[in-house]
Design goal:
The protein has a 7-stranded mixed sheet with strand order 1-7-6-5-4-2-3, sandwiched between helices. 37% of the residues lie in helices and 13% in strands. It starts with 7 loop residues before the first helix and ends with a helix. The chain has 14 helices and 12 strands. It has 2 domains: 114 residues, Aspartate Aminotransferase, domain 1; 257 residues, Type I PLP-dependent aspartate aminotransferase-like (Major domain) (Aspartate Aminotransferase, domain 2), CATH 3.40.640.
Length: 445
């Protein structure tokens, strides 16, 4: 808030209304042993004008990059967001609305959630989607929980190509539930299908990301066949933009599809808030967590919307609910809805085509820089791995030249010492690609 108008008299009146004598009394339930016994280490108060000057100086220490000079992806993508998304998203009817617990009174909110669900189903080739999740990582964890409950097995097979943060979310929950997590390492940027087949015995599910974290396109259909032959479910974590070009999880025989909605009209926002999505085949709908909006007719025969299958929900079944971490990100899902409706199928396909074109153009040109290699030959969508000499120093020099030049992979994958994950979106023009290649050549010298 830019301005908080509460005076000491206002605070005193509020304390009196709730029946306590002082602000300290509000914290009486906090044990003495964990309370801070000293003043906060903050400087004295400043006049408003001086405070704004100080804050502006702090903000100026942040590095900013022109949109076309960002070649960093790895789960957060720098897509162009049409102005209409912000214009509609910021309307008071949407921006100030809360989760519709009294659902039928919130027809506008329910309608845009229903449209979000519909478009997620169309993208993923699934029968049903819910009203969104916190993010892609929690959506994946929920999908794994569905598989464990459905199969009554406690072995989970995770491809090493799944986003490391998503894998960490899955492992953080299931290590407390007696589940066994089997991770299948990638080989040259792709997951070996033969190894997956060996690991699938007695598994609840096989989890595959496509495109994977290193950008490679995986064989989802083959993985689904392996999973089903072993009595397991096939779970795909997907980039929604890529689905404008690639076969959908449904077409590949997957049972559940999850992903992060951030590429669909949601800014990177320093890592959030975003909106995860989860979709599944019809037979899994009763085990699906989160809110699901359904279409119906009212007493007058007019079209209407309502929350359905609420008996699974945390606000009704409490600890027996399908999930207790699945609060939906309806406002962020609204951004995705407006974005998809603005672009339409043809527009989304054009965005995906530009991503592919720019990334492959970069891959072709970058290898002409002395010492730079593209070590893997897998097919990719808009991310790929490049081997760059003196990686840390080179990335730092590129930053000085105004380029956010990818993710150094060594902190995540020890064997990838001089490897960088590069990404292109439609915001990287051909001129941006040429400028980056030229700057890279200068930075390596």
């Amino acid at each position: 808030m830019d301005y908080i108008q509460n005076t000491p008299a206002d605070a005193s009146e509020m304390l009196k209304s709730i029946g306590v004598a002082s602000i300290d009394d509000l914290f009486a339930s906090i044990p003495e042993g964990v309370r801070l016994k000293r003043p906060l280490e903050i400087p004295p108060a400043l006049p408003e004008q001086d405070l704004l000057t100080h804050l502006s100086a702090l903000a100026a220490r942040n590095k900013t990059f022109d949109a076309g000079r960002c070649f960093l992806g790895a789960g957060a993508y720098n897509h162009f967001v049409p102005a209409v998304v912000d214009a509609l998203f910021s309307r008071g009817e949407f921006l100030s609305a809360y989760t519709p617990y009294q659902a039928e009174a919130s027809q506008g909110t329910l309608q845009h959630i229903f449209e979000f669900q519909t478009m997620i189903c169309e993208l993923t080739g699934m029968d049903v989607a819910n009203a969104s999740h916190y993010d892609g990582g929690t959506a994946l964890e929920e999908a794994v929980a569905m598989a464990v409950d459905h199969t009554e097995r406690k072995k989970v097979v995770l491809s090493g190509g799944v986003n490391p943060q998503y894998r960490a979310v899955v492992k953080s929950l299931f290590k407390h539930l007696g589940a066994t997590i089997v991770e299948v390492a990638q080989v040259r940027g792709q997951t070996p299908v033969a190894t997956l087949k060996e690991a699938a015995t007695d598994a609840a599910c096989i989890v595959m990301q496509n495109p994977n974290f290193l950008g490679g396109i995986e064989d989802l259909a083959a993985v689904s066949e392996i999973a089903h032959a072993a009595g397991a479910l096939s779970i795909a974590s997907v980039n929604p933009t890529s689905l404008a070009l690639l076969k959908s999880p449904g077409e590949c025989g997957c049972d559940i599809a999850v992903g992060e909605g951030q590429p669909l009209g949601i800014e990177m926002n320093f890592g959030g808030p975003w909106a995860g999505f989860i979709a599944a085949k019809k037979e899994f709908i009763r085990g699906m967590p989160g809110r699901i909006v359904g279409e119906t007719v009212d007493a007058a025969g007019q079209r209407g919307f309502t929350l359905t299958l609420q008996a699974r929900e945390q606000h009704i079944r409490r600890e027996k609910a399908s999930s207790n971490i699945c609060t939906n990100q309806a406002l962020m899902a609204l951004r995705a809805t407006i974005y998809l409706e603005t672009l339409g199928p043809g527009g989304l396909r054009r965005v995906a085509e530009l991503c592919v074109q720019r990334a492959h153009e970069l891959a072709e040109k970058i290898v002409k820089v002395p010492g730079v290699k593209v070590p893997f030959s897998y097919p990719f969508f808009h991310e790929f791995v490049a081997e760059i000499p003196h990686t840390a120093q080179t990335l730092a020099r590129l930053q000085e030249r105004g380029f956010l030049a990818g993710l150094h992979l060594q902190p995540i994958f020890r064997d990838y010492r001089d490897h960088v994950l590069l990404c292109c979106t439609e915001r990287n023009s051909g001129a941006d690609v040429d400028a980056f290649v030229a700057a890279l050549a200068e930075s390596i010298r």
